[in-house]
Design goal:
29% helix; Uridine Diphospho-n-acetylenolpyruvylglucosamine Reductase, domain 3; binds flavin-adenine dinucleotide; alpha+beta; 6-stranded antiparallel β-sheet; 464 residues
Length: 464
């Protein structure tokens, strides 16, 4: 269907593979966490995997693909959970994991090539006394460009907000999908053009991130008799700037029983608040949780938990992955709690969802104020069941994004503006970048997966 042989001849010595096993492996990401995407994305493969090792090779490969009008789907670590790095229309899978390295670092900032693993940037920053402000829980396999193009925030967001919050991404260098690709440097608010674009509007080649002073962090798990006590405490901690935390992750019972590493650590029936607390704040943290009826059941240096895995691998998207090891039919939607009174909003949603499944709440800053995200972990029955949960949450004023679909608009986590459309038009004039994921005309987007009632980018209500 595409002129692959001619393309391969054009790219000469750039590494490539048409081996079917390599193609299959690189054509999927972590979409299997969704029972609906598992069905929808099966059998979607690239025709060839191209693995450039330098920026110059990326540019040559993209130029050759555009000349032959072959679609290009960029891929980093392949940890995306909406299936957004699966090539819907075949073509080239552009494996960016060979384009690695720190370009420079200095106090407060670091710049790296697109395929650099987020963890490697953090390690490099720590060598000079700094650290990444935030990272996804997939930090050891996720690339920085994949985080920018497919992620939202994560550990650190409780203090610093999410990627799209002003000042959290300093610059993104991208190339256009033209026969003679242009290199563009997006800085300041322009960086938002590249955020959550699923590689459908540009190819990212370098990312510059602001850093924060490195802290020594204490991993802490607190048990509470009730879920709402944990929520009240988490919100109070999140609003107390003097106590330095970078994670406030709350789980209702029986989630602690479904996450196997927590068995024996969390008392029967208790809700948990998991947190990274800077050591100088530990006494104030402990005092505050006691005031809210919490008991510290685990406190240790980073990486030394009796549970045997990093604490962050039980928060955000990782919590569901852990739960699915115990109960594979559990799934979730993505709810957002933006309110002047988060506790009241969560309490109303909690009451109304009564017994549907244990609630999760990740507290983080978002648009300069504290907000929550999460939803119940339900035992999957049908798309209609998930839509029902979404409507219940919305009826109380929570917002919903859809993790069971894989196009930019249908997931609903990017506020698509006229600037985004103009950027897409100018960077991808032939519609070759990850086709189906984000088109100039919304009607051309792929909308397979679940059609949940989402609120296109709920942050509008919460500001930012
Ligand atoms: C268990 C689990 C936990 C997770 N936790 C979090 C979390 O805490 N926070 C969070 O934000 N996300 C989370 N995610 C989602 C995902 O892991 C992260 O967003 C991660 O940063 C993606 O990086 P990656 O290199 O794996 O990207 P990939 O999966 O390879 O790609 C992600 C998207 O970016 C595009 N892309 C990749 N490289 C480029 C490039 N160079 N130029 C343009 N587009 C590109 C791809 O086409 C794709 O659309 C989680 C996922 C799972 C499965």
């Amino acid at each position: 269907m595409y002129a692959i042989a001619e393309f391969l001849s054009d790219i000469g010595d750039i590494e490539s593979s048409i081996d079917p096993i390599t193609i299959r492996r690189k054509s999927r990401d972590r979409y299997a966490v969704s029972p609906l995407l598992r069905q929808q994305l099966q059998g979607k493969y690239a025709d060839v995997v191209v693995s450039p090792k330098t920026k110059a090779e990326v540019i040559r490969a993209v130029a050759a693909a555009v000349k032959r009008r072959v679609p290009i789907t960029a891929r980093g670590g392949g940890t995306a959970n909406y299936g957004q790095s699966v090539p819907l229309h075949g073509g080239i899978l552009l494996d960016m994991t060979g384009v690695v390295g720190i370009v420079w670092k200095k106090p407060g900032a670091i710049r790296a090539l697109a395929g650099t693993i987020v963890n490697d940037m953090d390690v490099a920053a720590k060598e000079i006394g700094w650290e990444m402000r935030m990272f996804p829980t997939t930090r050891t396999t996720a690339t920085i460009a994949g985080f920018i193009a497919g992620g939202t925030g994560g550990i650190g967001s409780a203090r610093w907000g999410v990627l799209r919050d002003r000042g959290n991404v300093s610059a993104v260098e991208v190339i256009t999908a033209e026969e003679d690709p242009r290199i563009l440097e997006l800085r300041g608010t322009k960086t938002s053009l590249a955020l959550h674009g699923y590689g459908a509007n540009c190819i990212i080649t370098e990312v510059e991130m602001p850093l924060t002073h490195a802290w020594e962090w204490r991993e802490t798990i607190v048990a509470f008799p009730t879920y709402m006590q944990a929520v009240r405490c988490g919100v109070a901690l999140g609003n107390t700037a003097g106590i330095v935390t970078k994670l406030l992750s709350i789980h209702e019972w029986p989630t602690p029983k479904l996450i196997q590493p927590l068995i024996g650590i969390v008392p029967e029936g208790c809700a948990t608040l998991a947190s990274y607390v800077a050591f100088p704040s530990a006494d104030d943290f402990d005092e505050m949780v006691a005031e809210f009826g919490g008991t510290v059941v685990s406190a240790c240096r980073e990486g030394e938990g009796a549970y045997g895995i990093p604490l962050y691998e039980m928060a955000f998207g990782h919590a569901l992955a852990q739960i699915q090891k115990t109960e594979p039919d559990r799934t979730a939607i993505e709810g957002f709690f933006h309110s002047d009174d988060i506790v009241d909003l969560v309490e109303r949603v909690h009451r109304k969802l009564d017994g549907i499944g244990p609630l999760r709440l990740e507290l983080r800053r978002w648009g300069n104020r504290l907000a929550g995200s999460g939803s119940p972990y339900v035992r999957f029955e049908s798309e209609a069941q998930l839509a029902r949960v979404a409507r219940i949450m919305q009826s109380e004023g929570a917002g919903v994004a859809n993790p069971h679909t894989s196009s930019v608009r249908s997931v609903g986590k990017k506020d698509v503006t006229e600037q985004d459309i103009a950027f897409k038009r100018s960077c991808d004039p032939y519609g070759l970048l990850n086709p189906g994921r984000f088109e100039v005309e919304s009607g051309a987007d792929d909308v397979s997966g679940a059609a949940l009632p989402t609120d296109a980018w709920v942050a509008r209500r919460g500001g930012g």
